[in-house]
Amino acid sequence: MKLGADLTKEEKKMVNKMFWRSGAMYASVNPVTMGGGGFCYAMMPFINYFYKNNEEKRREALARHTSYFSTTIPCASFVMGIAGSMEKENSEKEDFDANSITSIKTSLMGPLAGIGDSLFWGVWRVVAAGLAIGLANAGNIFAPILFLLAFNIPNVLCRYYGAYLGYSLGSQYIQKMYANGLIEVLTKAASIVGLIMVGAMTSQTVIFKTILNFSMQGQSVMDVQSALDSIFVGIIPLMLTFGCFKLLEKKVSVITLIFGIVVLGILLSVFGIC
User: Are 103 and 187 in contact (CB under 8 A)?
Assistant: First the structure.
């Protein structure tokens, strides 16, 4: 069966618009939302259509899709398609849990980023560049064109069919899952995966190693870093992360936190603490 054959003409039109917009996901990037603004831009055909008579839900959807999102662009349209189908369900059902849309997005972006980065950036880009370099060494002026075509054609095809696959799967299965109560299980699982991903990112990217070493009569009596590790490995990065989270709850802006951490790092380095 042809992918998307069961969709209405209007739905196909929205998916096509989303596909064309998805390529601009990282046109505007910031540390707070990464590709969230571009994700919301791609979702607007669905949002404007499904909530054309419900301004409150439209505002909620716009806010929902400007939140943090980051994954490989060829894989992003699949998530957008699923999110679009869930927005459709949310517009039709008063008891639909809109938080599940964000949970699904969060749970999918990490694994798809790993797959997409490895496949498109780690493997296929190298293969396409190898083919083009071989032609370039032979003096063929079409080598750059070959590279662009070889790399971007699979990219575009993945985005196009991923958009239809995501929306079609959502249209077929989201309603059934919601009726059977599976959507609650999926939302819970997605939240757990999201927390695991955040925890893994914290342990890998938040680094603090102090060089403080107390000595007496020329002999070391306490290596502060070793003492901290004996209590809990990574205890300072963990406390720093929780502190930032607490400040975010108190409405401290992310930009303020970023500059605060930079200043703190400079001061700790100047005073020889880390």
Answer: yes
